[in-house]
């Protein structure tokens, strides 16, 4: 009786505990991916994420085929689809790596019970975060709300396990179960095809992810600490979409970084990723509800649609904001410093609710994930965990002077801003700052 490995946010063969468990069972292996836009609470993927998924699945399917197995693609409510395939294929076991969002956990728990009731083995594994969320708590048993003690507590736990080796051969079934044709999922943009910049910048899939990790650790990481805040420096790892899709596990990155002598600053960025996922585990509504409930009193005005589209399209007249928003649209990525500046501008200079910005990033980022995006938007808004205080309002012009002093980043993404006639600014920084601080008084009054 074959084993099914249900791939989700872990589109890799190396360090894949669910795949390892299937191989240890010594039966043929069927790989499965389910596109689930239907189950209650499951957030449909954004456009850039769908682009990445298409290519990463293509790569995974090819790698499974090369090793003797297969990837079956199915669409629909996951709990039903996985159980159906298990029955039709006469499977004896289903294995998967854990997810941490509430709707995903509900599906997985219900499926586990149903499969076990039918006499199958159903087992899940830790693979996508370094520390399981329920193992990290304050002395009084509550989740951490401040990063530094959170990460200190993580580092006091046993070191994350060594990554598992990549299997060289994976036995398959003699007749593969029917699979959807990936093209029929229409994950790629058609009219218009907006993905040219994404194709130019990225190569999804596990082999390219491994190459990028190696390149970063051997060539680029020496300037990480000094230059990670300089958007034009190319000093950061660009591993975020690879982690989002699980083409690399955090364990692999952790251990290879330590071996390469890459320091604590880089590992502590992985710590922010852990913090975001742990926060989502404890506060499942992170994408829609203020973590600090006193922010519910914030009097958001009705958003000005022209301001919103100027922000989305990079036409605000503020150079670093426009550069960042155009980088995002063209490549599906934006440097972290610029993410902070563009998010702050939307929330505090345009007085537009962080949730509206979060949705735009969700649709346009190749690394948009269920935890980090809303976590960081709330961090900028001041409503989140260990957040920047609301009244700390970035001045986009000063931020550009400080982090892009020679305007290299701006010249690359918004060259009109370094021309003789830069575009007009859509708001006055001083006035909007004052209005934001005034609106914030309502939150202070509520707390
Ligand atoms: P590096 O500096 O090389 O960092 C290494 C890894 O650490 C990253 O790949 C990422 O996995 C993790 N990391 C670093 N900073 C953070 C952080 N602040 N929060 C969580 N993880 C972090 N990151 C996402 O992965 N997905 C998102 O949807 C996302 N949305 C964001 C929205 C806003 C408004 C802001 C301010 C930040 C957001 N980030 C998000 C965090 C951060 O900007 C990206 O992880 C980072 O820019 C990715 O580039 P890198 O891989 O080169 O980072």
Q: Which blocks of ≥5 consecutive residues have pLDDT under 50?
A: none
Order of helices and strands: EHEHEHEHEHHHHHHHHHHHHHHH
* Strand composition percent: 5-15%
User: Which CATH class of the largest domain?
Assistant: Mainly Alpha
EC number: 4.1.99.3
Domain Photolyase/cryptochrome alpha/beta: 1-130
GO molecular function: deoxyribodipyrimidine photo-lyase activity; DNA binding; FAD binding
Binding site for FAD: 224, 236-240, 266, 367-369
Structure overview:
By secondary structure, this protein is α/β, with parallel strands linked by helices. The chain has 3 domains: 3-126, 3-Layer(aba) Sandwich (Rossmann fold); 129-164 and 197-282, Alpha Horseshoe (Serine Threonine Protein Phosphatase 5, Tetratricopeptide repeat), CATH 1.25.40.80; 293-446, DNA Cyclobutane Dipyrimidine Photolyase, subunit A, domain 3 (Orthogonal Bundle), CATH 1.10.579. It has helices spanning 17-24, 47-66, 78-88, 102-117, 147-155, 196-201, 206-220, 224-227, 240-244, 250-259, 264-282, 305-313, 319-331, 336-349, 354-364, 372-381, 396-403, 408-413, 429-446, and strands at 3-7, 29-35, 71-75, 93-97, 121-125. It has a 5-stranded parallel sheet with strand order 3-2-1-4-5, sandwiched between helices. Helix 3 packs parallel to helix 4. The protein is globular and about 70 Å long. The protein starts with a strand and ends with a helix. Flavin-adenine dinucleotide binds at residues 228, 236-240, 243-244, 269-270, 272-273, 276, 336, 339-340, 343, 361, 365, 367-369, 372-373, 376-377, 380. Flavin-adenine dinucleotide (FAD) binds at residues 228, 236-240, 243-244, 269-270, 272-273, 276, 336, 339-340, 343, 361, 365, 367-369, 372-373, 376-377, 380.
């Amino acid at each position: 009786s074959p084993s099914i490995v249900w791939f989700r946010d872990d589109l890799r063969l190396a360090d894949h505990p669910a795949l390892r468990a299937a191989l240890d069972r010594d039966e043929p292996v069927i790989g499965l991916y389910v596109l689930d836009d239907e189950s209650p609470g499951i957030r449909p993927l954004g456009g850039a994420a769908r682009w990445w998924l298409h290519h990463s699945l293509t790569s995974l399917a090819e790698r499974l085929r090369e090793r003797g197995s297969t990837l079956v693609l199915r669409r629909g409510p996951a709990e039903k689809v996985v159980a159906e395939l298990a029955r039709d294929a006469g499977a004896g076991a289903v294995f998967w790596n854990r997810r941490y969002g509430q709707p995903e956990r509900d599906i997985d728990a219900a499926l586990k019970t149903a499969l076990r009731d039918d006499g199958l083995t159903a087992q899940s594994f830790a693979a996508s975060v370094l520390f399981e969320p329920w193992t990290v708590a304050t002395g009084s048993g509550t989740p951490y709300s401040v990063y530094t003690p959170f990460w200190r507590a993580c580092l006091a736990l046993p070191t994350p396990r060594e990554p598992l080796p990549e299997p060289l051969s994976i036995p398959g079934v003699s007749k593969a179960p029917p699979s959807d044709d990936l093209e029929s999922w229409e994950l790629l943009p058609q009219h218009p095809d907006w993905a040219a910049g994404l194709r130019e910048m990225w190569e999804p899939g596990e082999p390219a992810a491994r190459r990028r990790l190696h390149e970063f650790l051997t060539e680029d990481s020496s300037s990480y600490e000094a230059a990670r805040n300089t958007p034009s420096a190319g000093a950061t790892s660009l591993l975020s979409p690879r982690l989002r899709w699980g083409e690399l596990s955090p364990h692999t990155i952790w251990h290879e970084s330590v071996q390469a002598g890459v320091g604590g600053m880089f590992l502590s960025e992985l710590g922010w990723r852990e913090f975001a996922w742990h926060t989502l585990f404890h506060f499942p509504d992170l994408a829609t509800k203020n973590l600090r409930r006193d922010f519910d009193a914030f009097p958001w005005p009705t958003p000005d649609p022209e301001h919103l589209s100027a922000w989305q399209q990079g036409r605000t007249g503020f150079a670093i904001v426009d550069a960042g928003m155009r980088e995002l649209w063209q490549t599906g990525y934006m440097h972290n410093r610029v993410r902070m500046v563009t998010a702050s501008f939307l929330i505090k200079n345009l007085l537009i609710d962080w949730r509206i910005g979060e949705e735009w990033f969700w649709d346009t980022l190749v690394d948009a994930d269920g935890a980090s995006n809303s976590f960081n938007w709330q961090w900028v808004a001041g409503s989140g965990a260990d957040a920047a205080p609301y009244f700390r309002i970035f001045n986009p012009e000063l931020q550009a002077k400080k982090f892009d002093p020679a305007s290299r980043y701006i010249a690359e993404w918004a060259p009109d801003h370094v021309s003789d006639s830069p575009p007009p600014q859509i708001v006055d920084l001083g006035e909007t700052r004052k209005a934001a601080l005034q609106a914030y008084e309502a939150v202070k009054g509520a707390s």
